[in-house]
Amino acid sequence: MKRTVFLVSDRTGITVDTMVHTLLTQFDEEDFERVTLPFMDNPEKIHVAVQQINAAADRDGVPPLVFSSLVDADCRDALRQSRGILFDFFDAFIGPLETVLGRQSAHAMGRSHGMGNTRAYDERLEAVNFALSYDDGARLKNLDAADLILLGVSRSGKTPTCLYLALQFGVRAANYPLTQEDFLGDGLPPVLQPHRRVLFGLSIAPERLQQIRQQRRADSEYASLARCRQETHWAERLYAAHGVPFLNTTAMSIEEIAAAIMHRTGIRRRAF
Amino acid sequence: MKRTVFLVSDRTGITVDTMVHTLLTQFDEEDFERVTLPFMDNPEKIHVAVQQINAAADRDGVPPLVFSSLVDADCRDALRQSRGILFDFFDAFIGPLETVLGRQSAHAMGRSHGMGNTRAYDERLEAVNFALSYDDGARLKNLDAADLILLGVSRSGKTPTCLYLALQFGVRAANYPLTQEDFLGDGLPPVLQPHRRVLFGLSIAPERLQQIRQQRRADSEYASLARCRQETHWAERLYAAHGVPFLNTTAMSIEEIAAAIMHRTGIRRRAF
User: Fold this and answer.
1) Best residue of A3, A17, A18 to probe chain B, by most B CBs closer than 10 Å
2) pLDDT (tens digit, 9 = 90+) per residue, B187-212?
3) Long-range pairs, A72-77, Cβ under 8 A, ≥24
């Protein structure tokens, strides 16, 4: 019998989702059944949640785990009435933090992943539009506005990384696909030359690249291991020749690629 | 003098970033200066971090706050040597969780936002490709594969929402822009009719829509308040007439829109 895990939050549930994800990956995830309950922003809704939790306790024969990030004290009190085992994010951290800082917190809902200020929000939208306009070398003018230009061969992870950087950090990232033409010449593609300081390269193991390209265009020359080997070799040689910092993305998730780029380039995020 | 806040993690820093973001929004964020230190995955790197923390303590005249999510016990021990005030995510939760579950956790790094299994990762990439292919009504064939089709007038938030759903949840979301043509007819646009069960509408306050459109095409008819009023009115009437669930996104962040859609539709995420 699986143990039910409840994720209770007053808004999006992102905080509690991240928290549960991080904690449960340290155990065997197969053992848990998750139930997400976002927007539980008043004690009445919490009472309904408590009934669900108690029903799961009866059904499972073990008390459910209840992870919550509720800022409102009445909501937290209401949730304590359940027969689940409660792990509350604010209980764990906000009290100690108030003590250290010598002041009360705001206890206001929706601050962490809400609209916040419109400006920061617009920065993110603008960054998404930027990433879409400058995806795959679609446009090459006015690259001056780019915080970053990602280089890489087809299917090395440029597009999802740019979109993630835009959505998560408000970073304006263009991307430029390296193709055989770019490798024929000796130098950096001319269009990139004025932007050397914002270039960053992606590389990938040929075997993994082949696997990804196979899904796209099975059994094509494009997806052949020989071609994948040649392109990645050329790309890395180009990075080295022009001092373009680069990253091998083979075993990295989009989040890791993005975090590593932010870390290595020192680009400042425009939005939180 | 601002107080320095260190975010120390062994991998991407997403967990600790979310945690700090959520906690500090409950205080006055202006008071803090953040320093992010990802990929601190051995005690030697932690020693360097400790020196940075101690230097900040001297400079600020108050001990820095140190938020960490380190799974390795040696790393955690090393970090405890700093003069910062430590808030460790695993200290707070993993111990109590081990007690409840009656077993040890894996203490393995990079599990939460790493590659995990390749299949889940490919699901997310596939979802991003899907969102891009089916953005803004770009393609309308084979919509059968869509988990969701978002409807809305131009600039109501469809594209960033679809991309966020893809990256965060691996959900395949297409989007269809409602234009004046669609409002002339009586029914649902014919191309959408076979897909009623996956339709979801976005609406937005005309004033906010005008503001967004102004940034795009200043002083155009497209950005006029009259046009924004008319389009949003028509869109909501269309949703109501055809039983399409919808959301007013005016005061919502992308995260909130995505969470609300997941909650209301009950779509299951394909990736964590």
Assistant:
1) A18
2) 899 889 999 999 999 999 999 999 98
3) A72/A10, A72/A41, A72/A42, A72/A107, A72/A109, A73/A107, A74/A43, A75/A10, A75/A40, A75/A41, A75/A42, A75/A43, A75/A46, A77/A43
